Amino acid sequence: MKKLSLLLLVSILLVACGQSDKNSSSDNSPKESDGKNLEEEVKSSENKEENEPEVEEVMTITKGNALVIDDYAEITINNNVFGKQISPPNPSSMYTYYKNEEEGEVYLDTSISVKSLLTTGQSSDEFVDVKIIYDEKYEYKTFSTIEDRGGEDFTFTNITSIEPLKTGTLHFLASVPEQVEKDGKPLKAIITVKGQTYEQIIR
């Protein structure tokens, strides 16, 4: 009888140990799952960071203040002028001018002086790019010309180099509707120099 009681006691203890092991094993499973979830959350966060678009930094440039890019150029915005016809500042008896033949449109002329800080000459059309943004959404491209003979004439930028430590005055012309000149809505020039973008608030 004592042996039977002893066997029953041992059996009960073994069953209790088995239940304890199962509970212990059960407690460990969620911990493994939590680790996987954490890893998935980290990967998800990394993917979101990769998918977020890069915000381009835009710096401000103001009329009359020189912007110096070391070992490249010194850039100065001289003026922004509207006109049906754009002529050189000191026209000679014979000179080149630009007349907007489109009905209801005028030119916006952005005049920029470029002093080269390079050690060799570079084509004047490679220093600066300009586009015009009107009312925060309408974009207008420009074409360029450069003053010749001290402002007596215009000539083509793609055949004119600016030599080291010399200055060329470029004019960037955008054809825009007449309302851009008259209605007073926001207007700015976006100027790109050596891959960096600058913003000039015209009004």
Sum this structure up briefly.
The chain has 203 residues and is α+β, with helices and mostly antiparallel strands. The chain has 2 helices and 15 strands.
Structure commentary:
The strands form four sheets. Strands 2-3-6-13-10-11 form a six-stranded antiparallel sheet. Strands 1-15-14-8-9 form a five-stranded mixed sheet, with no helix packed on it. Strand 10 and strand 11 (153-156) form a beta hairpin. By secondary structure, the chain is of the alpha+beta class. Helices cover 27% and strands 40% of the residues.
Record keyword descriptors for this entry:
single chain; 203 residues; alpha+beta; 6-stranded antiparallel sheet; 5-stranded mixed sheet
Helicity range: 25-40%
List how many beta strands DSSP finds.
15
- Report the uncertain regions: 1-10
Estimated structural class:
alpha+beta
Shape: flat
Helix-strand layout with pairing:
Blueprint: H1 2-51, E1 58-60, E2 67-69, E3 73-83, E4 85-86, E5 98-99, E6 105-116, E7 122-123, E8 129-134, E9 138-141, E10 143-148, E11 153-156, E12 161-162, E13 167-177, H2 178-182, E14 187-193, E15 196-201
Parallel strand pairs: 1-15
Antiparallel strand pairs: 2-3, 3-6, 4-5, 6-13, 7-12, 8-9, 8-14, 10-11, 10-13, 14-15
